[in-house]
């Protein structure tokens, strides 16, 4: 395999964090076949898309034929799942095969999901089915196109193996790329075992990899806590600004890098509903749309606990005080990000103190009227081009939105409204991966091996701001016949 021979993976995780993983290989696959390859991302990684699309490339992407420089491993991690602590989760169906320094000089993990059983598999089969793999591919790439920090999808490959889910389904591997797979749960794994030295090594590694500017500061571990809080607040505010419900905000799915990870049960809401909750196992709405900032706050407190011993190694009381101060700042910090996100969505110049109530008033009207969240912001831009009709058509009772529009336009007084409208349309997507479209695309691929709807939808949602006449149907919410949407974890 001439291409792989010279290919250089780096393996900083394997090299520097011994004891935090198990070396492991991918399972045998019957007949790997590329279903989707992300050419642009491959090039960014310095990989040759032509090679990746070949038979040898497919063997590489499922982890069977790896270059000598690869050290493939399963990472250890723990996690609070819906509030309950699981001390040993880890990569039960995934492998890190190495790191690549990309063309922008960023270190990226190349990671396989669905690559077979590992010592962390517990009762699981180590597999992934094609449906959830395509779903993650689609939604993570849509998120990236909308400017949300996220893991990326490099490839979806069917393995030729069958996996048992509802019935027998085609098995698949998702080759995923991330700035790292360090999670709050990674820290928890060792903190729970009182392995302080490993927590410290992990914290130093996380700082070097994600926050190198902290390395020589007075209290780099407190700095790490602040940095993770900051990135995660920014991330969740971005989700909320797009009507995204992650659905499984467990601490093993909360990254140290601030990237979105784990697209199992996520969904975008159509009409605005603060209680929106889709996951079949989230029975009490712990991770519903409007609870996401609270869940984040809780997860960040769990992270703080893991590094408490590092913050002030001599004075435990001081560690608690310092970390406690940071906990108190999370809510205002999140709210500042939320306000900034919502302000730009509405084209508001430099946020004023009265903007919060302007935004909240709008959301109250949306909630009462069950208005489509994504369409609303695009149609508000039309108002600035003197066309109020499209936005008003979204409301049954138009009196409240009429008076809100007057207030909003007043707030924009003195600005060039056409310029603002243009700007809003570069921030507010016309196309999101709507649940009914995702389901239809995934079903067609899974049941009929028809990948056309998937490719078409992928093309639309990765160009979310360019409204096109022929894509009209992709803007529409689900028809009533679609009913209540339910999502599932880890399938
Ligand atoms: P997830 O729901 O994908 O975040 O997974 C939570 C935990 O369950 C992780 O430790 C996974 O590795 C593990 N897991 C999920 N699905 C499987 C599976 N099919 N086989 C083995 N482990 C799994
Ligand atoms: Mg997960």
Overview of the structural elements:
There is one protein chain. This protein is of the alpha+beta class and 491 residues long. Among the domains are: 2-178, no CATH class; 184-344. It is 44% helix and 13% strand. The protein has 19 helices and twelve strands. The strands form four sheets. Strands 2, 6, 7, 8, 9 and 10 form a six-stranded antiparallel beta sheet that branches. Strands 1-3 form a two-stranded antiparallel ribbon. A hairpin with a 5-residue loop joins strand 6 and strand 7 (107-113). Helix 9 packs parallel to helix 11 (316-345) and helix 17 runs antiparallel to helix 18. 47% of the residues are buried. Magnesium ion binds at residues 252-253, 262. Magnesium ion binds next to loops.
Helix and strand arrangement:
Layout: H1 2-5, H2 12-16, E1 21-23, E2 33-37, H3 39-44, H4 49-52, H5 55-61, E3 73-75, E4 79-81, E5 84-86, E6 94-101, E7 107-113, E8 128-129, H6 130-145, E9 152-164, E10 168-178, H7 184-192, H8 196-210, H9 220-241, E11 244-245, E12 267-268, H10 292-311, H11 316-345, H12 355-369, H13 373-384, H14 389-392, H15 399-411, H16 417-424, H17 435-448, H18 452-461, H19 472-475
Antiparallel strand pairs: 1-3, 2-9, 4-5, 6-7, 7-10, 8-10, 9-10, 11-12
Helix pairs in contact: 6-17, 6-18, 7-8, 7-10, 8-10, 9-10, 9-11, 10-11, 12-15, 13-16, 17-18
The chain binds adenosine monophosphate (AMP) and magnesium ion.
């Amino acid at each position: 395999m001439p291409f792989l021979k010279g290919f250089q993976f780096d393996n900083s995780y394997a090299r520097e964090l011994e004891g935090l993983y198990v070396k492991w290989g991918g399972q045998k696959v019957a007949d790997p076949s590329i279903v989707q390859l992300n050419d642009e991302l491959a090039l960014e990684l310095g990989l040759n898309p032509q090679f990746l699309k070949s038979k040898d490339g497919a063997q590489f992407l499922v982890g069977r034929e790896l270059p000598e420089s690869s050290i493939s491993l399963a990472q250890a991690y723990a996690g609070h799942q819906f509030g309950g602590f699981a001390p040993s989760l880890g990569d039960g169906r995934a492998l890190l095969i190495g790191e690549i320094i990309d063309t922008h000089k960023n270190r990226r993990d190349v990671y396989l999901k669905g690559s077979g059983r590992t010592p962390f598999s517990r009762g699981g089969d180590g597999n992934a089915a094609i449906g959830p793999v395509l779903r993650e591919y689609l939604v993570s790439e849509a998120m990236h196109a909308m400017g949300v920090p996220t893991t990326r999808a490099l490839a979806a490959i069917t393995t030729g193996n069958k996996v048992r889910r509802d019935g027998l389904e085609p098995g698949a591997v998702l080759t995923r790329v991330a700035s790292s797979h360090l999670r709050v749960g990674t820290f928890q794994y060792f903190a729970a075992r009182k392995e302080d030295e490993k927590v410290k090594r992990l914290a130093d590694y996380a700082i070097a990899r994600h926050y190198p500017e902290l390395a020589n500061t007075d209290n780099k571990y407190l700095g790490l806590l602040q940095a993770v809080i900051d990135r995660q607040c920014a991330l969740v505010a971005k989700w909320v600004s797009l009507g995204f419900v992650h659905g499984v905000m467990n601490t093993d799915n909360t990254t140290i890098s601030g990237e979105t990870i784990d697209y199992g049960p996520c969904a975008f809401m159509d009409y605005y509903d603060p209680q929106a909750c889709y996951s079949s196992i989230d029975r009490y709405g712990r991770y519903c749309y409007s609870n996401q900032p609270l869940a984040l706050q809780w997860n960040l407190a769990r992270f703080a606990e893991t590094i408490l011993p590092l913050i002030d190694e001599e004075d435990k009381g001081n560690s608690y005080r310092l970390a406690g101060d940071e906990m108190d700042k999370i809510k205002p910090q999140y709210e500042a990000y939320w306000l900034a996100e919502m302000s730009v969505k509405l084209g508001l110049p430099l946020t004023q103190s009265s903007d919060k109530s302007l935004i909240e008033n709008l959301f109250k009207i949306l909630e009462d009227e069950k208005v489509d969240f994504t369409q609303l912001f695009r149609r508000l831009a039309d108002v600035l081009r003197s066309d109020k009709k499209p936005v008003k058509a979204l409301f049954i009772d138009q009196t409240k939105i009429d008076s809100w529009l007057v207030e909003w336009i007043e707030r924009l007084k003195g600005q060039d409204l056409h310029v603002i409208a243009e700007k809003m349309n570069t921030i507010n997507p016309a196309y999101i991966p709507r649940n009914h479209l995702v389901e239809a695309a995934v079903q067609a691929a899974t049941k009929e091996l028809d990948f056309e709807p998937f490719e078409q939808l992928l093309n639309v949602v990765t160009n979310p701001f360019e409204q096109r006449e022929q894509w009209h149907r992709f803007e529409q919410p689900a028809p009533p016949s679609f009913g209540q949407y339910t999502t599932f974890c880890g399938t």
